[in-house]
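Bench notes, afternoon.
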Amino acid sequence: MISFLNPLLLIGILGAAIPVIIHLINKKKAISHKFAAIDFLFQSNKRIYVKFKLRQLILLVLRACLFAFLAMALAKPFIKSYGAGGADGKTPTSSVIIVDESYSMQYAEKTNTLFHSAKDAARNIIGNLTKDDKAAVIGCSPANSKDVPELEYDKEKLTAIIDDLHSGYSTTDITSALDRAIEILIADEAPVKQIFIITDLARNGWDLQWFQNGQQKLHNNVACVHIVDVSEGKESKNVALTGLELRNNAFGTSGDISFKATVFNYSPDKIKNLLAQVFVDQKKVTQGFFNSEANSAETKEFCFKVEKGSHFGWIEIPDDNLITDNKRYFTLNEEQKIDALLIDGDPRTNIYESETFYLEKALNPAREHASSIKPVICSVQEVEGLKFEDFDIVFFCNVEMLPYEKVWELEKYVKEGGAVIFSLGDKVDSSYYNSSFGSLLPHRLHTKKTFSGNTLITEEQPLHVKISGETHPVMRVLFEMHSTMMSSINFYQVFYLDPTPLEGAKTILSFSDNTPAIIERQVGKGKAVLFTSSIDRDWTDLPVKPLFVPLIQQLCRYISGSVTGDTRHETLVGQSWQFPSPYDAENLEMTNPEGTKTLLSPQVIENEKYFVYNETHVPGIYSCIINDASQLKNPFFFPVNVDVLESNPEKIGEKELTALMGETNVTIRSFRSGERREVVTGEAKKTLWGIFLLLVFGLLVAESFISRK
């Protein structure tokens, strides 16, 4: 069906009458006079006369068509092609309108954002529905991934849903929205089912893997997919803060802090002297300048000083067309001081050969003001003058035996909330440990096994380590950072354990032969950990490996229930935040950046108690207070930032989209808010005014040629 954008201009077709009128006027006969001398000439010119009349008629038709075609070209005709409905547009349809509300839709060149245009386009679609058409409106952000509304006839209700939409801080997920749209349409019986996708066509929102199976699902259940590009096909320019990495964190002390920040220039022009400012506790502490080439990144280091305590801050660059990714947040949490008692069961005159030498260095690498863990070393004889309750953690390092009174005191200490770590060695007797520390050990000791490492026989080669099964909280961060280093750690002698663990025992780390390397067990309110090799270099080279220091520190923080290093790691918008719950914790009070408070109760996940918070929908600083049995209210913070994947404005091409849709009919067009354009109704439109203008030009050439004959 042919329609016109400017039908009033069709009145110009009346101009086709002008050549006809002129022709009729010229048909008036002149007065003739007979002249016998040339009468014979008229007879010879009859053929010439017929040709003249034919040329005049052709010129008449050409000139009339010239006016008509020019008028039609100015009226801008086009052909509507409905997806699978009737050509008359009266066939009832069911439509799902997907509105992209990701943060890239907040891009604005003047005043209105792309999201504003998207809502206008959605309203126009609703406005063009008939009373027999049904529709549903959904978003395409992960936060709305479970939203599956029903189809509605009520235009006012649908418009209200559109009005309530708002652009968030998440990334685009078009394919997830397509799944929901198909789910909505699949049970409907309308003869025409179609999907509208209103988006900026950012490439990151299209999961290409989805279309391997989803392409056929679309074709089977949807007549047509109509894609509306609110960016008008223009390439967006954006400068974003894409990375922030803390390098030296003096938690719990006064000291220097340094971090690296990365700015990415997603534009064809170089940026010069881009100001970046760093704020801590809402006060500016330093600044720097970025100079980045087109479509490239630059990383700069920032240094500043903080006082003792927990802090929060951010780094920001000036506002541009997309302001959402111009700020990134960070936190500096004061860690709980940990007092550790190291009982050296094999002290040596040469301190480098002492059982606790490497352990002490791991707990406090720089001795002063560098770690929140304070180690105290004593011998077995000196332990009688100390009280376990004065320490947060007690290490047994190749201890042969302990006085009976101290064994009883140790058991009481752990059950009331203390923590003990047993590391073994050549002085350890399995029978004594099983009888004296049986109520604390996660496993009963069985026998020692020695690996020489000097032979190619498989069973004689040194053992290595690996993470067994589900990742333990102690290893979760370490595995991401040091997974490639684990295979290089050698164990030449270990203690094998009884196959059956005691109740509540969990493996933290395993050897390559699947026997336990580090095991933990909840004992009353406290925890006991068993390391089945030595803590020095007698049985293993672990103490000289880069993994040793973070492993020991993370283990101490975990079993002592202090604020872990997890709080310093970045959480992205929409991600779940988990925090290990202390044994006596009753609840956790969470305050989001908008001031909304939520009270969380501990949950059991993989046999561990955690606080879980899923409402990370807004970037910024989240504040936490744990209420435990002692009613300690020491706040700590964690940052939530936007996913920089959405900062990249690269668009997916129309040809690629058409190929992804396969056999499904797809139309791709733009929408410009505020201008007089055709209303988006879902039908494909083939414009014809170019053809009519070409015909006008051809008629002019033909008329000029014929009139000169």
